[in-house]
Design brief:
The chain is built from nine helices and 38 strands. It has about 550 residues and is α+β, with helices and mostly antiparallel strands. This is F-box domain-containing protein. It comes from Postia placenta MAD-698-R-SB12.
Length: about 550
């Protein structure tokens, strides 16, 4: 048994022998029970503490340190633990590989076939396509993270009692398939069905109520038991497990976009502001009108000049749902939204359209809600009270002709794609990382001082300080934003084709080009298997005092 020196209440025990094991064990047990700083023991509930201490005495402190380090790294990356198949140390290596891949994106560009006109892609790598008027095909996209190098067919569902599917949404975590089909009269009406994936398109066992009316051309959003969809100039939110409408609002004009902050708040992007409405999933409601001011708070966008003729701000949230997979070591937390993407279109008379992009962390929205509820600020929050410190705003490069911009969000990352119609300009994919802990740690590692930015090898930009945005004759004031971010930009070759849509996945980017081709850009070493990755250097995240405590706790 190795030599150990532990400070106990009765004195110091040094160089324990096998005969002294019981005495040392009893003293160690008493010392641990008296340490109020060990909060983990309070969370064990009815688990016998003597058994817990026996387990600790048979665990190496190095294993505990690796576990602690793995949890810290997951927190920095905004992820949670997944499959227990791989050892913790191996999962930490995979996590480091994934982080390196986003910092140094060398793309492999395999073409996997053609996409249907109606399809849905989830960030966990599941694609659903409408292959017939009543048939949906689900596939697993390639992922070097899971060791899958080719797309795999998961299942094909022929939905009963539905003849003309116009729009659908898939949530494998809840075994939910939301289908909207069209009705002959009136043409803007449709029925929304709640079906089960495992039951091959039959009615979901937890769903209540009959199919309800909706707008088949508008997509739905789902957050747990809540399902929201726009309808004419209104917005409906239903609890699909009870069949009750929990929020219904009528606006003067159609809203630009909606997103769930969580099951308690709904975000609605109007012309000049982002409104936050409170939800109660268990309380039915009646119709309300937006002019009654029923919002919790409204976060106003930057002020424009009065002669602006067109303004629209879209909001994108993560299309996420986690389906348990044995070979996925970790995944994004399905209960937490970290980032929203706002795309603002502004036009003045017949001038070219300007496109702005705002990275909006969820923490900024929660902070505004808390300040309004505590009455520290008025309910209508001006841009200067939330935008400069809580967002980052950019202007997308545009040309004289129409410019295409696509946005996608995953955890704390945002992907934007800008494609101008001019042939001489390449398509540009920008990947932003907005996790402050991760960005700040990497920036310090590369010796980027706070308040400054630095381009590293013409690939990565770390920006920790404020940046100014001046749009002549558009905004009344200079726009200053300062949320830290890391930017990696990739120019897509013209040979790929004209991009129609891009989706950010766990470890890759899905691209749809004209002609409905599916191009899957795998990050890292051209989609190299994880086994080919050299060992990662150990991250210095665990403090020395934690290492000493683990050594004493495990008797090494």
């Amino acid at each position: 048994m190795p030599t150990l020196t532990i400070q106990l209440p009765d004195g110091i025990i040094s160089q324990p022998t096998l005969d002294e094991f019981r005495e040392r064990y009893a003293a160690l047990q008493q010392a641990i029970l008296q340490q109020r700083t060990i909060k983990a023991l309070e969370q064990l509930g009815e688990f016998p503490r003597n058994l817990w201490i026996k387990i600790l005495l048979h665990i190496s402190w190095r294993d505990l340190m690796a576990f602690r380090q793995y949890k810290i790294e997951l927190g920095h990356a905004g992820l949670i633990d997944g499959s227990p198949e791989a050892p913790r140390r191996r999962r930490l290596e995979v996590l480091h590989k994934l982080q390196r891949s986003w910092r140094t994106p060398s793309f492999s560009i395999p073409v996997y076939g053609y996409l249907q006109h109606t399809y849905s892609v989830l960030s966990c790598g599941i694609m659903a396509q409408l292959v017939a008027a009543d048939t949906i095909e689900l596939s697993l996209l390639p992922s070097s993270l899971r060791g899958q190098l080719k797309p795999l067919l998961w299942k094909t569902i022929t939905v009963p009692n539905v003849s003309n599917i116009m729009c659908f949404y898939v949530d494998p975590a809840q075994d939910l398939l939301v289908i909207q089909d069209s009705m002959s009269e009136p043409t803007y009406h449709g029925r929304t069905h709640l079906r089960s994936l495992e039951m091959n398109g039959n009615k979901h066992p937890l769903a209540r109520g009959s199919p309800f009316l909706g707008a088949p051309s508008r997509s739905v959003i789902v957050q747990g038991a809540l399902l929201g969809f726009p309808y004419l100039c209104g917005m409906h939110v239903l609890n699909w497990r009870t069949g009750n409408a929990v929020w219904r609002m009528q606006f003067d004009v159609a809203v630009d976009g909606c997103a769930f902050l969580d099951e308690g708040f709904l975000l609605v992007s109007e012309t000049d502001r982002l409104c936050v409405y409170r939800l109660n999933p268990h309380a039915p409601c009646d119709w309300q009108y937006a002019d009654r001011g029923s919002y919790v708070c409204s976060m106003h966008y930057p002020v424009l000049y009065d002669d602006i003729t067109f303004r629209r701000t879209l909001i994108d949230q993560e299309a996420r749902s986690y389906r348990s997979q044995d070979n996925a070591p970790f995944h994004a937390d399905p209960a937490v939204r970290n980032l929203f993407s706002l795309t603002m279109y502004v036009q003045k008379y017949s001038q070219a359209e300007h496109i702005f992009h705002i990275l909006l962390p969820a923490t900024t929205i929660y902070k505004c809600i808390r300040r309004v509820i505590s009455r520290k600020v008025a309910r209508d929050v001006a841009w200067e009270n939330w935008g400069p410190m809580g967002t980052r705003m950019f202007e997308q490069p545009t040309g004289p002709s129409k410019t295409f911009v696509s946005s996608s969000v995953l955890a704390s990352q945002c992907l934007t794609t800008c494609r101008a119609r001019e042939k001489e300009r390449p398509h540009l994919i920008s990947i932003y990382e907005t996790n402050p802990m991760l960005v700040t740690r990497e920036a310090r590692k590369h010796r980027v001082r706070e308040g400054k930015s630095k381009m590293i090898a013409q690939k990565i930009l770390y920006d920790l300080g404020p940046s100014n945005l001046t749009a002549e004759y558009l905004f009344k004031d200079v726009i200053t934003t300062s949320w830290p971010y890391r930017l990696v930009q990739v120019e897509v070759p013209h040979a790929v084709g004209d991009i129609v849509r891009t989706v950010l996945l766990e470890d890759s980017v899905l691209v749809q080009v004209i002609g409905n081709r599916q191009v899957h850009h795998t990050l890292g070493r051209g989609g190299a298997p994880i086994e080919d990755t050299p060992p990662c250097p150990r991250a210095l995240s665990v403090r020395p005092e934690e290492i000493d405590w683990l050594r004493k706790l495990t008797g090494e």
